[in-house]
Amino acid sequence: MADTTSTSSNFALFPTEYVVKKLLIIGSDNLQFHKWSEQKKVPPGNNKQVKWGRYKALDLPLAPLAEGIPPTPTALEIDSILATLQQFGQTIKLTDVHELTVMHDSFQNGLKQLGRAMRRIRDAQLQTVLLGGTNVFFPNNKTTRGALTTGDVPDTVVFRKMTSKLKNPDEENGEAERFPDGFFRAIWHEKHTNDMLQDVTFEGAAIRGQRGKDLERGEIGAPWHATRHFETNFGPEFRNTGDPTIVDDAPVILGDVYGGAPSILPGLKITSNNGSGSLGASTPFDLTVTAVHKKKGLEDQISGVIDVATLGGDNELILVAPTNPAYVYNYYFGADAGTRFLVASNVVAGASFTIGAVPVTGTTAPVPPAEGEIVYTSYVFGMGSFGTCILKMEEAIITPNTATDSNPLKQFRLMGYKYFDSNTILNQLQLVRLEAVSAFT
User: Fold this and answer.
1) Helix H or strand E segment including 96
2) Verdict on whether the full-model pTM lies above 0.85
3) Most Cβ neighbours (<10 Å): which of 118, 183, 330, 381?
4) How many whole angstroms separate alpha carbon 115 and alpha carbon 109?
């Protein structure tokens, strides 16, 4: 009689995985920007528009007074900055079956994930506003993001130039206001921190006086050069995703972009079409496609200038978004060799969008870095250089675990958050942004 052997294959229809009950830890974010923002609470009932005001400096009397003749009165003038409050929120819906059958505590873990998501999107929105700052420095006398290359890393020379700009911004504005402890603030991307610590001048200052509690709150070393230094691991990392040659109605493939380009553009398809648009037939145009990672919220993947054109008899272009589902996509469009303006934002992967006219105003396309380079941002600023108006603070929402008309059998409950605020640059001259590559990419 033959032996009958029981093997694992006899049980192939039964689950064979062992599920570890303890969940893996998700990395934390060292978020720095909101705690240095000028915070203002907006009372309810005051519309969604918020106006900040600042008096302008007076012209100085440049000639002596004539005897017995009073001077001509000087008028007080005020600058105003307008901000628009916006509400954001997110929810998770858990069924009773899910909570009863899933091994891990999905309710508590859902709350943790919502908290992390809220902190990330708030910080991303503030940093997006700060990227609109006009006071930008680049290492080694470079003048644009696209000119940065290997070796254009932060050092004490460029840092001192930044703080000098805060101390002596222009003829009208005096030194940027210091924080109550008498120092400016610097927030370094953690890649730039490593570059600065490789600079022997800064490294010596950072180590001198370093304390454990400084490290715990993200502070780098002792105050130096009128500035306290902090580090963040959450910020834009600008990459050039390429400018592939477009063939009408043919999707971009990975081989169409330069070697080593992020795989963001494959799947992009542009079709010339005869529809209701007003684009001229047989006409060239320029397109920039940017991408925002859905778990980061920052627009830091930027294509080069992509040449597109309508065919004979056509008057519009139909764009199908790239197929990478981790991102949403923004389109900037313009005349050939003209300015490209934003025409669509947050387009999901694979979705269609029709461009039927050339925009003449709006948000302009961001500048990509050079191919193969990654550009990071860091900041030096004074108190009150940027602000956050808050109509409604962050609010956690958990629906009660009771029967309602819409949920009579208590089959689900919702959890989420919402907030209502706006972020604004209050003084361009007191906020200095550094854009640089890193030797520690």
Assistant:
1) helix 96-101
2) yes
3) 381
4) 10
Instruction: State pLDDT tens for residues 308-339.
Output: 999 999 999 999 999 999 999 999 999 999 99
In this structure, the number of other CB atoms found within 10 A of the CB of residue 173 comes to 15
Residues of the chain with CATH 3.90.1690: 27-56+79-236+373-441
**Which residues are bridge partners to 93 per DSSP?**
414
Report the 3 state secondary structure along 224-277: ECCEEEEEECCCCEEEECCCCCCCCCCCCCHHHCCCCCCCCCCCCEEEEECCCC
- Give the contacts of 33 (CB within 8 A, at least 6 positions apart): 123, 126, 127, 130, 187, 232
Residues 6+ apart with CB under 8 A from 402: 410
List Cα–Cα distances, 219 to 31, 180, 202, 231, in angstroms: 12, 17, 14, 6
Indicate the CATH number for domain 27-56+79-236+373-441.
Answer: 3.90.1690
* pLDDT, tens only, 42-86: 888 888 888 888 888 888 888 999 999 999 998 988 888 888 999
351, 328 contact by CB (below 8 A): no
Concatenated DSSP letters of 124-168 = HHHHHHHTT-S-EE-GGG--SGGG--TT----HHHHHHHHHHHHS
CA dihedral 259, 261, 266, 270 (to 10 degrees): -100
What one-letter code names the amino acid at 348?
Answer: V
